[in-house]
Amino acid sequence: MTGPAKVLGVLFGSTVAGVACAAPPLPASAEPGATPAMPAAMPATLPNTAGAVRVNLADAVHADYRDAVMKVVQKPTVSTRAAAPDVICTVSMYEWLFDHPDRVAAAWNRLKVQAVPISDAGNGLFAWTDENGSEVVWRTVGTFQDGRVWYATGKVKPGVAAPAVPVKAVAILTHPRKATKDGVASFSTSVQIFLVSDSKAATLALRLMGPAAPKVAEQGAEQFLEFFNGIADYVQKHPTKADALLAPPKK
Fold first, then answer.
1. Residue 186 forms beta bridges with which residues?
2. DSSP, res 61
3. Where would I find the H helices in 55-186?
4. Which among 236, 251, 241 is positioned nearest to 107, based on CA atoms?
5. Residue 11 is assigned to a structural domain of this protein
6. Residue 56 pairs with which residues in a beta bridge?
7. CA-wise closest residue to 187 among 196, 176, 198
8. Residue span of the signal peptide, if any (predicted)?
9. Residue 38 forms part of a structural domain
10. How far apart are CA 40 and CA 108, in angstroms?
């Protein structure tokens, strides 16, 4: 699995910024000037991929972030969605993982799978940085039944000498339960991701990628889900290892 190594970068910018540094060759069927088809606007009420939950963002998102979230969702540079195979986990643990992405990243590293470092900045804020100078921060800005909304801002640099690409992103996560018994449930998880960048380099990269751009974004969304579900599955199968695996990262 390569997701933990890149998932936050893909989710919060490298879908745009990474291809700005090195876009792949155009498919034979793509026209050089083609721009990938992306929605010009999205409704305020969004169905999740499984069709089980409808999210009213006006109600779900805190008033302090509502306008910022709606601007990203209604006119994204890139948008995508993905659903993950069902995962079985205790309800308390599964919800805890989404509240502690820094612990999830640390868990992957302890399993010898390289993961990007995520730091807990306090007051519900998390941060991701890399050696190139990328820096993205995000927080939960809204909750609803069986789900939450993340809002992220920052910059992504695909290389040390590359220009910084400013990004804003919204991730709408839903994880309805199919069955619950003795505190354990089967979760059917999906995510919708909306990303905005006004960078000319990002716009050019997406144009060069043509029809491949939506697939790249979808793969990033799938990796985002596996980032959490992989650890949920592991601790459910190895409960005696959970405390050590999910302990705070060493400073």
1. 88, 179
2. B
3. 57-60, 63-74, 91-99, 101-110
4. 241
5. yes
6. 45
7. 176
8. 1-22
9. no
10. 37
Owner of token pair 């509240």: 99
The CA distance from 223 to 3, in Å, is 5
Residue 37 belongs to some domain of the structure:
no
| pLDDT tens-digit readout, 53-72 | 568 888 899 999 999 999 99
Amino acid at 26: L
Contact 115, 109 (CB under 8 A): yes
Rounded distance between C-alpha atoms, residue 156 and residue 131, angstroms? 11
Instruction: At 42, list the tokens.
Output: 């999205």
Six-digit token string for 191: 């995510």
Contact present, 37 and 210 (Cβ < 8 Å): no
Report phi then psi at 20, rounded to 5.
-65, -25
Query: pLDDT, tens digit, for every residue of 115-149?
Result: 778 899 999 999 988 888 888 899 999 999 899 99
For residue 109, give every residue at least 6 positions away whose Cβ sits within 8 Å of its Cβ, in sequence order, or none. Answer: 115
Residue 104, pLDDT score: 93
Which structural domain, as residue segments, surrounds residue 85?
A: 3-20+48-245
The Cα–Cα gap between 66 and 142 comes to: 9
Q: Are 37 and 251 in contact (CB under 8 A)?
A: no
Residue holding tokens 């991929």?
Answer: 49
The verdict on residue 41 lying in a domain is no
Q: What is the DSSP letter of 206?
A: H
Domain of 159: which CATH number?
3.30.530.20
Rounded to whole angstroms, what are the CA distances from 202 to 19, 110, 144?
8, 34, 32
Q: What is the CA radius of gyration of the chain?
A: 18
Domain tally, the chain: 1
Which residues on adjacent β-strands are paired with residue 80?
Answer: 193
Lowest mean pLDDT among 21-30, 152-161, 164-173: 21-30
